[in-house]
Amino acid sequence: MRLIAAQDRLIVALDVAGVEEARQAVQALEGAVDFFKIGLALQLAPGVDAFLQSLLAQGKRVFLDYKYYDVQETLRKAVGRAARLGVSFLTIHGPGSLIRAAVEAKGESDLKLLTVTVLTSLDAGDIAEMGYTRHAVDELVLFRAKKALEAGCDGVIASGREAAKIKEIAGSRLLVITPGIRPEGAPAHEQKRHATPAEAIRAGADYLVVGRPILGASDPRRAAERILAEMQDAFDALP
């Protein structure tokens, strides 16, 4: 039996309107959650840089979900800066040449680079509209996961529905970080390929990213604790 602490594997997405709201969310979850995602919702918010630094100074882990996608030299500079900041996870996007440039830029730091496969809010119709007509959603996810592995990426962003197949091809060589998590009975919102916390973990997800089911709850801390309990039960049941 693997001894995995659910508290180490839950990432709360701070996809809120501003820094003050994000700060209040972190305070409300003190002692329950120590890993937080800062994404596009906060990227240009006044004070976000100081907020990020304050999280790191408090010993919190930070997942910088900026989906970096640019020419190699620009990507190297951006990834190098993130590595120096001390964030734990960073999302990137693009072909193998860009992923390899990002891997080179992170150097010997502890930064984990994560490639986006297919957003959990997209389905077959969406990817066909984007021009991906040769692959079904799960095929495109696996194709991108394989390319990420070949390029030296640390992990991928993928739904719980594809986690098992990714683990079949990559095993422990790729982390699987799963958003689109919805507890049983919770509204799906725009998530088209969602999973419960237990479903995602049983499928092979290493980390879960949860936003609205926690921050939108009347009692965010209690909501987080319920998700953590479900996660822990699922982790404890793994062979």
What does it look like?
It is a single chain. The chain is of the alpha/beta class and 239 residues long. It has one domain: Aldolase class I (TIM Barrel, Alpha-Beta Barrel). It has twelve helices and eight strands. The protein has helices spanning 6-9, 19-28, 40-43, 48-57, 72-85, 96-106, 124-129, 137-150, 160-170, 197-203, 212-215, 220-236, and strands at residues 10-13, 35-38, 61-68, 89-92, 112-116, 155-157, 175-178, 207-210. It has an eight-stranded parallel β-barrel, surrounded by six helices. Helix 5 runs parallel beside helix 6, helix 8 packs across helix 9 (160-170) and helix 9 (160-170) runs parallel beside helix 10. The protein is globular. The model has no long low-confidence stretch (mean pLDDT 92).
Key features of this structure:
239 residues; 47% helix; globular; 12 helices; eight-stranded parallel beta barrel; TIM Barrel; alpha/beta
Order of helices and strands: HEHEHHEHEHEHHEHEHEHH
Rg calc? 17 Å
Rounded average pLDDT = 92
Q: What is the CATH domain class?
A: Alpha Beta
Which percent range describes the beta-strand content? 15-25%
Structural class: alpha/beta
Taking strands numbered 1, 2, ... along the chain, how are they ordered across the largest sheet?
Answer: 1-2-3-4-5-6-7-8
CATH topology: TIM Barrel
What would you say the CATH architecture is? Alpha-Beta Barrel
CATH homologous superfamily grouping = Aldolase class I
- As a percent range, the share of helical residues equals 40-55%
Beginning-to-end CA distance, first to last residue: 5 Å
Shape: globular
List the uncertain runs.
none
Number of domains: 1
Largest sheet: 8 strands, parallel, barrel
Number of helices: 12
